[in-house]
Amino acid sequence: MQNYNRGFSLKMFTNERQRYATGIIFLLGVVFIWVGSSFLMNNIFAGQDYNKPFAITYINTASFSLYLLAFFLSKQKRSIDKQRIIDFSHALYDTASRSSVESLSEHSAKSDEAMHITVPTEQCVSTAPQRAHSHIDPHDLLLSTHNEQKLSNREVAKLGLTFCILWFAANWSSNASLAYTNVASSTILASMSAFFTLCIGALVGIEKLSFLKFIAVFVSIIGVFMISREGTLETPDESPASNPLLGNFLALLGAFFYGCYTVLLKLRIQNESHVNMPLFFGFVGIFNIFLLWPFFWILDWFQIECFQLPPSNTLWIMIATNALVGTFLSDYLWLLAVLMTSPLVVTLGMSLTIPMSLIGDSVFKGILMSNTYWFGAFIILSGFLAVNFAAFKENEKENEQKYTLLNDDVVL
Q: How far apart are CA 154 and CA 75, in angstroms?
């Protein structure tokens, strides 16, 4: 039994490593999707002359409501399958319990005959649960723990409402900042989301402060600064910022909101098995549709963003593609990456969109980048690798402690 527990711990330890690696793969997938989405959004705003950041953000967020269709369509089938699993589990448990008691009784009877000792039946029955306990699979203990921590539908709805507000505020603030300040300043201040994520995560116990993490965040911000400033110097014809103080404040506010909702999700969900993901995103989409539509008329009334539907079929197709791939799919993968790794790892990973965009500009637009660009991209990548190293070591240490305690509990 002890060897079995060691083998189980090794298997679960390996599964945790695979889970972390899967999260990194999802993160890289999100980076590729967001880079493609940024080129598409640039074409929508500039090439198609549809500069409506609120409308685009509203449509993107509303696409989350499509997850509810899959949830309700599969609800009846899941109920049937769940009942079958419950019935099967009960039958299996009853059969296993009876066989354990019967085998224990036979073993006790043979021992009594060999040693000529009479053992009361009550004693055999009382020892049965203790010996049956030694045959409990530790995996069942972990599954029962996950089920106990699973969020109820009401809790998922509350979390979806909070996330909807913070997510929309972060995205709108970032988009709106571009109307008042230049792209370089907005990009640099947006990279401060890594700093906010680290600080907020440390305050609530999600992230552990370390020198390596701090250096990784600082280095990443320096890399973003180098690339953004170099871009400003190479585009002197860019129109001057109309209100740089307001624009910079909005960009910084967007970075703060991003840190808030990223840490919030990790804090409340912890593990992807604790929440029904389609239901969560479905609530986000529904809350977005019913709570935020009045802002169309408010923004139109104050002439901040005049209400206008996309004027062409091509524009509708581009917006729908961006919503389904750039938001509907990518944010699902993004949340899985946050839960499988850490908020700080994912936040710094999103900075990889900058060097990936440089590669995209070089390949698709034939733009030649200076050495400063590539050095800044290298620094950003170094910061991402450094924070991954720190987070991976922390996870290894936590998993060792967790499975050591699990082995001790099961053996006892």
A: 17
Residue 67 in tokens: 């997850």
Nearest residue to 283 via CA among 157, 197, 392: 157
Instruction: Judge if pTM exceeds 0.85.
Output: no
pLDDT digits (tens, 9 = 90+) for 108-135: 554 555 444 444 444 444 444 444 444 4
- What is the predicted pLDDT for the residue at 50? 78
CA distances in angstroms from 219 to 108, 141, 192, 263, 357, listed in the order given: 69, 42, 11, 21, 19
How does residue 351 score in pLDDT terms, banded at 50, 70 and 90? confident
Which long-range CB contacts under 8 A does 203-211 form with residues at least 24 apart? 204/263, 204/267, 206/263, 206/266, 206/267, 206/342, 206/343, 207/263, 207/342, 207/343, 207/344, 208/394, 210/390
- Tally: H helices and E strands in the chain: 18, 0
Q: Which amino acid is at 205?
A: G
Instruction: List for the chain the helix, strand, coil content (%; round to 5).
Output: 85, 0, 15
Q: In whole angstroms, how large is the CA radius of gyration of the chain? A: 27
Name the region of 383 (left: φ>0; alpha: ψ -120 to 50; beta: rest).
alpha
The whole-angstrom separation of Cα 96 and Cα 387 is 47
Residue with tokens 């060999």: 114
Residue written as token pair 């792209």: 183
Among 360, 353, 32, 23, which Cα is nearest to 220's? 353
Residue the block writes with tokens 């909005």: 250
Give the relative orientation of helices 211-234 and 343-350 as an angle to the nearest 10 degrees: 20
